[in-house]
Amino acid sequence: MGISPIEYRPWKGVRTAQKLRLYVIARSVVKHKLRSAGVIVLLVLGFFLVHTLSLLFIVLLPHEELEASDMNSYLGSGLFATFSMLLAAVVTSDLISEDLSNNSFVLYFSRALKIRDYLTGKAGGALFVMSLVCAFPPVLVATVSMATQTGSDYWGGAAVLGKTALVGLLVTVFFVPFGLMVSSFTKRKSYAAIGTFMSFFVLEIVAQVFSEFDRAWEVVSPIESLSFLFDWVYEGAAPYYVGEGALVGVVSAFIVIPAAVVYLRLVRQVVGR
Amino acid sequence: MTGEGSGPQSIIRTEALSKWYGEVIGLNNFNLDVRPGITGIVGPNGSGKSTLFKLVLGLIRHNAGTITVLGRKPWGNADLHSSIGFCPDYESLPVDSTGREYLALVGRLHAMQGAELSKRIDEIAKLVEMGRALDRKTGGYSKGMKQRMKIAGALLHDPELLILDEPLSGTDPLVRKDIIDLIKRLNRDHGHDVVVSSHVLFEIERMTHNVVLIYKGRAVASGDISDIRDLMDKHPHNIIVEGRGIAAMAKLLLDRDYVVSVAFNDSKDSVTVQVSRPDDFFDGLPTLIDEAQCSVTKMYSLDDNLEAIFRYLVGR
């Protein structure tokens, strides 16, 4: 098999547009994930186990209006956060580890792309997939609840709907940076998936052990911290034993620190040494 | 080609460029001025070729000196990559993707899209004769196919400058010839400037006469390959000759003006001949064998490996 001296015509098209490149990476992630049997199974399971039951209750049981407390008990039960955690572990596991394994970074960074663009694109794709279970279904449930309510206070319901969208967004964003960080530490996606899930699990255990002495330690648990966040958003206050500043600090730390670590790790590992 | 005389025509220009990784020096006081055309970068493994390419691509930051590529500084200048196509020396294809998916991703990263992109992918795949394998997963490609797919990825967006890091490594002779022809054609017929690396001088010589020899992070020689050959010829070459009746040949060799020394090895059937002009030695060998009435069973040059040539050039 040799190379034939066929006609070669230079490309005359445009070759720039930074935003499009982010979209290209995100789209590539989404396409890849939506072809993965594991992700599809989790998405379907997540939708049915976490959201369908609530949806059925809302449709079947008469209700006057969309209540914040109802949404809080539906989303804050722990099942939603646990499932989101599991999905994040699977979705983010190969995002960087596979590129490490294939040496594919050069594919990206020898193009007009920076590390932050690469990470934004990867995270964007993962966030979209996460949102299919974490953001869109709760908003759908809230919308259906408003559509089937017997009362006429739609403004109150709209406020709860907005809070639900915010909660969905927070949960979507919450786990992805951590998953990306773990994925950047290994070339094997199975290690990354297990590592992400086990890291959260260890934090759960730490929180449980230390909360025996001081309940404020519960905030260290990712699931509990999300639950407290839901309380704060829906009910207007976090539990008395959790300082709101500490809660914001912990939730921010869960997002910002892994994002910074994965960025620095890529700078160190791939380029710019 | 190095040092003096830069200008708007410089494709790549470095001045006292240095890059170190902790205590390891990647490039040391490296001066280079690459002009349009095909330029070969030749050096043994670990000489700094890949470091140079990373610096050219702006993938790593230099510690000292200056570097410009197509008149622009590469570090932190991602837009410059629109004008560069890079084919790395290591495997970098996503194994779960087909060749078409890989090229589509590469094209989209350069904002190519739609029917034009599809057409371009088919065109480039044909050019590197990967049309039939385009819809196969890259994980199942042979080494040669991967090389060609990587070259396709570098070419897809029609860059002004092509950087090919060891594009011939691991390919069979037929593919090697095809790739060499392709590289020459890309420059001659389509105006791409090409910087290509190899650790085999002979391979580069088949593509271009402009070469830069790199050794231990330094540009030890650069210019026309014939100048470099002349430079190499100033240093004696060691050639080992083995066979029957070699002693008679050794006696005759001592009378030749291109022979610096003749030394017997462990047996009387093996000599090491140090020559100042290897071409004269090889040209005159049949006459020598005839005159000495000997038979040569084995002959090899100790200087055939590039490492030895580089050691000459750095005066070791």
Poorly predicted sequence stretches spanning 5 or more consecutive residues of chain B: 1-8
Judged by helices, strands and strand pairing, the structural class of chain A is: mainly alpha
Quaternary state reads heterodimer
Give the helix tally of chain B.
Answer: 10
Measured by DSSP, the beta-strand proportion of chain A falls in under 5%
What gap, in angstroms, lies between the N and C termini of chain B? 24 Å
Biggest sheet of chain A, open or closed, and with what strands and sense?
A: none
Shape of chain A: globular
- According to CATH, the fold-level topology of the largest domain in chain B is Rossmann fold
Outline the low-pLDDT stretches of chain A: 1-8
Order of helices and strands of chain A: HHHHHHHHHHH
- Identify the CATH homologous superfamily of the largest domain in chain B: P-loop containing nucleotide triphosphate hydrolases
Output the structural class of chain B: alpha/beta
Shape of chain B: elongated
The number of domains of chain B is 2
Total domain units of chain A: 1
The whole-angstrom Rg of chain B is: 23 Å
Number of discrete helical segments of chain A: 11
